Amino acid sequence: MRALLAFTCLGSFLLFGQQPPSSQQLPKGLPKDPGPFLPELARGEERAAQPAAPAPHLPDGRPDFGGKGAWYPGFSGNIAETKWKGVKSADHHVDVPFLPWSLQLFNERVNSDSKDDPEARCLPVGVPRYMFDPYPFQMIQTDDKVIFIFEGDNYPWRIVRIGPGAAHPKELNPTWLGDAVGHYEGDTLVVDVTGFNDKAWLDQAGHPQTEKLHVTERYTRTDLMTLKYQVTIDDPGAYAKPWTASNTVRWRPGFELMEYVCQENEKSSRHMVGRQ
């Protein structure tokens, strides 16, 4: 059975999603799953005892990031910490090389309980945040594109151009998701992204970005059930040097995306006064 879930993160905003299939709906051999938001609660011993099948490939040898189901990032509110607000977050800790102004702004956002978070006002999240937020997504591959379709995050789709002719335009208007071009390196999809605005937050914790942001993403399906995501953030406007974060994304067999309209659900941004 599928149901709409709502919970409050950091006292700041509501996140909406859906429950995974019941254990009876899952393929035989998979452990009972605790839900989309906290996939790390699935016991590691059970997963180790029941190894997943190898990662699938398309007929031309490219890695297959699709199938009958959807990807769930879990909830990683801080992309630079392994645990944040008592919940498992990113895969590893990062000593973020802040510039003085960006560290001050980051601390202000943390101390105010993220009251100015653009996502809470139904604005799009950017890159890499959508790969750390608890909403399902699917990846559709064609000969010259990889198309991401999202259930939440206030943005329904993202297109990555693939192939020899894929290149960034000389002139780019700043956008929330930037301009993305990619290529395959063996079993990894590598995506180069530029042309960002400075409005998005890199995560819910409030790591800032500027229009100088340049992102390199790496997607690797290590087995049937697992997608490893790595992102290098190069933003000389906010950070002294590039830094890298990562997340482990789980596959939910049989999942289909639901219709999601943030504006219809948003009832609480006027109450987001944070801490003074």
Keywords:
276 residues, mainly beta, two-stranded antiparallel sheet, 3 helices, 13 strands, 8% helix, 29% strand, disordered N terminus
Q: How would you sum up this structure, described in words?
A:
It is a single chain. The protein is mainly β and 276 residues long. It has one domain. It contains three helices and 13 strands, in the order ββαβββαββββββββα. The chain has helices at 44-49, 100-111, 262-265; strands at 4-9, 13-18, 69-72, 83-84, 87-88, 137-141, 145-150, 157-162, 179-185, 188-194, 214-223, 226-234, 243-253. A nine-stranded mixed beta sheet has the order 3-13-12-11-10-9-8-7-6, with no helix packed on it. A two-stranded antiparallel ribbon has the order 1-2. The protein is globular and about 55 Å long. The N and C termini lie far apart (42 Å). The model is unreliable at 1-49 (pLDDT under 50).
Write a short abstract of this structure:
Helices cover 8% and strands 29% of the residues. The chain is built from 3 helices and 13 strands, in the order E-E-H-E-E-E-H-E-E-E-E-E-E-E-E-H.
Largest sheet: 9 strands, mixed
Average pLDDT value? 83
Which strand-content bin applies to the residues?
A: 25-35%
Helix content bin = under 10%
Number of strands: 13
Task: Give the low-confidence spans.
Answer: 1-49
Shape annotation: globular
Oligomeric grouping of the chains: single chain
- Quote the distance from N terminus to C terminus: 42 Å
Count of distinct structural domains: 1
Strand arrangement, largest sheet? 3-13-12-11-10-9-8-7-6
Order of helices and strands: EEHEEEHEEEEEEEEH
Number of helices: 3
| Class based on secondary structure composition and strand pairing | mainly beta
Radius of gyration: 18 Å
